[in-house]
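>> received
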Amino acid sequence: MHRAVLICALVLLILSPIKCKKKKEDDIQEKTTTTSIPTTKDQESRSEIDVINIMKECNESFRIQMSYLEQLNNSGSFPDETDKTPKCYIHCVLESSGVASEEGQFDAASAALVLTQLNDGYDTNELIDIAFQCTDRQETCKCERSYQFIKCIMEKQINKIENSK
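>> returned
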């Protein structure tokens, strides 16, 4: 049941209206930011995020096949990693939910809160640790950067689950 909820959430997450743009040579080097654990006030405001609605809105712009989300949920990656549409869907959801900033930086605590909203089986504190390990991204395309961030989290979470069996 947890996988079904996560798959549905990821389907909506992947359909974003943001397109990758080539950056000028001087913009290629992006700054990275550190992520802090949210305060109670931050947690309250973030817990009110309507992730499902955000996913639906992003899905209107970036359509993705359900099989892509299932593959991401099961393996941690998309079946075709050359397709920009699902990556931009993820970017849309992450930016709209406050996980990604307009500058393309990620907030591990926000990522953990959003993912735990989508899957009750995830532990928020463990996801904060996992997401924090994935925040330092070097990709210049925001869609690719967002996908690699989620891919990193999913792969680490899958490995954690498999190793605990």
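>> Helices lie at 2-13, 40-47, 51-59, 66-75, 84-96, 108-118, 124-134, 142-163.
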